[in-house]
Specification:
TRAP_DctP; TRAP dicarboxylate transporter subunit DctP; alpha/beta; binds (2S)-2-hydroxybutanedioic acid; TRAP_DctP_sf; 45% helix; 17% strand; D-Maltodextrin-Binding Protein, domain 2; 5-stranded mixed sheet; 334 residues; 6-stranded mixed sheet; DctP_fam; signal
Length: 334
């Protein structure tokens, strides 16, 4: 009787064929940040919703904190089909050959979440995700994190304070140019290695949204931090196209629904999580937090302004212009 009513229930939600399979479909979701971050929490949300909506026909295994793969390996693993879901930072798609994603790294291009979401949740965002298809990757969503602050062991109140400093960056040519523009020395490094590199002095400083800095305890090894908000860090949730297309249609429908809902959740909690982390850094008393004056902020904007023009040939002038247009951004105001 119990089995019969279970069957009726499954047919009702359209999961009859797959849910009867003995083994659930396993989706490995690998990421590099702590569980207690916007991305970490959204991944857990997706797991809960996906398992609920498929009535257990899908099992999502979330691997946080680079426990399964680090930055570079995770992209390869996805293409090989060893992992099914990732949410890499938009600054990490260059090595894959999709340079356009680096447009998100242009300093000060987004004035805040509202301007940003016009792109990520609009037509330009969809066009960007489509660029992943020839690489065998399907882009499912954009998830927010937040706006970056610089940190180091000496104060960074003006662009000149970054001069000569070894700064850890993600693998983006735009970020590399950003740091070179102020004569600092950019060092590309996997996220999992940053804490130790800061602790041992392999690098002097870095840039992060507050949730990343705090949950990796970087504030314990960085005495100063400046709320420059000079750039954005967020994610594209991606899957192996062959895997996704090969899923039974009724399962895919439920997973798409779970993804839409976890995306709303991710983008709802991002700012709040970052604000909480900033307060936690402040409360720790380990890092001096500097809020730049209007003049100081203007000096950072001016110093980084040339990056937009210099990166045009890499990213595409048309794409950059379409973002300016959509968000109302005026590069002359930098
Ligand atoms: C970084 O490497 O700094 C970030 O991309 C980590 C992340 O996934 O937020």
């Amino acid at each position: 009787m119990k089995i019969r009513s279970l069957l009726v229930g499954l047919v009702a939600v359209g999961l009859s064929s797959v849910a009867l399979a003995a083994e659930p479909i396993v989706i490995k979701f690998s990421h590099v940040v702590a569980q207690d971050t916007p991305k970490g929490k959204a991944a857990e949300k997706f797991k809960a919703l996906a398992e609920e909506y498929t009535k257990g026909a899908v099992k999502v295994e979330v691997y946080a904190n680079s426990t399964l793969y680090k930055d570079k390996e995770e992209m390869e693993a996805l293409q090989l089909g060893a992992v099914q879901l990732l949410a890499p930072s938009l600054a990490k798609f260059g090595p894959l050959g999709v340079r356009e994603f680096e447009v998100f790294d242009l300093p000060y291009i987004f004035d805040g979440y509202e301007a940003l979401n016009k792109i990520t949740q609009g037509a330009v965002g969809q066009q960007l995700l489509a660029k992943l298809e020839p690489k065998g990757i399907r882009g499912l969503a954009f998830w927010d994190n937040g706006f970056k602050s610089f940190s180091a062991n000496s104060p960074i109140k003006k662009p000149e304070d970054l001069r000569g400093k070894k700064m850890r960056i993600q693998s983006s040519k735009v970020l590399e140019e950003q740091m070179r523009e102020v004569k600092s020395l950019p060092q590309v490094m996997a996220f999992s290695e940053v804490y130790q590199a800061l602790q041992t002095g392999v690098v002097d400083g870095t840039e992060n949204p507050h949730s990343n800095l705090y949950t990796q305890k970087m504030h314990e090894v960085q005495k100063h931090m400046t709320l420059t908000d000079h750039g954005y860090l967020g994610y594209a949730v991606i899957t192996n196209k062959k895997f996704w297309d090969g899923l039974p249609a009724e399962i895919r429908t439920q997973l798409d629904k779970a993804m839409v809902e976890s995306t709303v959740y991710a983008n709802q909690i991002a700012k709040e999580e970052n604000d909480k982390s900033l307060e936690a850094v402040r409360a720790s008393g380990k890092t001096e937090i500097h809020t730049p004056t209007a003049e100081e902020k203007a000096a950072f904007k001016k110093a980084f302004a040339p990056v937009h023009k210099k990166m045009e040939s890499r990213i595409g002038a048309e794409l950059i212009q379409s973002i300016y247009k959509e968000t109302g951004f005026d590069p002359a105001k930098l």
